[in-house]
Amino acid sequence: MKLKFLSFNFLDSIDERVDLIKNYLGLALEIPNFDLWGKVETELISIRDLDERDAIKAKIVEALEKCGSILISRQKYTNQGTPRQVSEWIKNFVANLGLGKFDKLQKVEYLSNNPIIRTLDANDREKVKNLLDIYEKLRLSSKTPEGYENSVLMTVNGKTIIFNHGNVEEVSSGINKVKKIINEEKNSDALSEDFKSESANDAISPISTTLPTPPVSPLAELENLLKNYSENSLEHKAISQEISRLKIAEFKRAQKSDQK
């Protein structure tokens, strides 16, 4: 099942992904450096309709609230009141932090001073924190500034900024190339078809001595551009999001082609 989580974005359907989370989330949170939210966010970014995004989020939230997968083994702790299943931890979050948007200070206080969490070892505390982060982000509508998954590049007063989950930060002017590539990507399918046609014509020509130079795909351009930025930068995040979106879109097109 851990392998399924690693290939999360390439499973056949949203329902399969939701069922995987509902039944085996505890296993996913045991995988070192595994970013489940990153995979969920990538899937959401590939969906343009924000209502559809929110519907998927609601499904996953419901899956978490019913998830019987084991997050914390009670055998490690003497306190028998320690929540064990994912669903029990979700109830604990709501009991301590409420049903609305989680207050940042309350969240820090909960993770630092909650008597049950303080008894957990570092590894188990990290699992609880990761689960809380995922649950919190899923409860935010994609129609809100904080819940909108895409990093948006904008130019304001001649400065290039990235709008990301309600935060705004100025970035290097070189990121403008990303905007250009994203806009050109809309025409990438047409370019691809033109190249296929041109290649086919050249293949049957008895006089052809040169091969056409294939157009550089938006995906390849972005992957090259990504190398210019550190992993912690907003530029890296924005480009990575677009790369992931393109790869998923490419995979889904291939799936539809295979089904014909």
How do the strands and helices of this protein lay out in sequence?
Elements: H1 2-6, H2 14-28, H3 36-45, H4 50-65, H5 86-97, H6 104-113, H7 115-118, H8 122-138, E1 152-156, E2 159-164, E3 167-170, H9 176-185, H10 188-204, H11 218-226, H12 234-259
Antiparallel strand pairs: 1-2, 2-3
Brief characterization of the structure:
This protein is mainly α.
Please tag this protein with its features.
12 helices; three-stranded antiparallel β-sheet; 58% helix
Number of helices: 12
The termini sit apart by: 29 Å
For the largest beta-sheet, the strand count, sense and barrel status come to: 3 strands, antiparallel
Topology as a string of helices (H) and strands (E): HHHHHHHHEEEHHHH
Low-pLDDT stretches: 189-211
Q: Count of DSSP E strands?
A: 3
**Can you give the helix content as a percent range?**
55-70%
Provide structural commentary.
With 260 residues, this protein is mainly α. It has two domains: 2-138, no CATH class; 152-259, no CATH class. 58% of the residues lie in helices and 6% in strands. The protein has helices at 2-6, 14-28, 36-45, 50-65, 86-97, 104-113, 115-118, 122-138, 176-185, 188-204, 218-226, 234-259, and strands spanning 152-156, 159-164, 167-170. A three-stranded antiparallel beta sheet has the order 1-2-3, covered by helices on one side. β1 and β2 form a beta hairpin. α5 (86-97) packs across α8 (122-138) and α11 (218-226) packs antiparallel against α12 (234-259). The longest helix is centred in the C-terminal third of the chain and has 26 residues, at 234-259. The chain is globular, with a radius of gyration of 22 Å. The two termini are 29 Å apart.
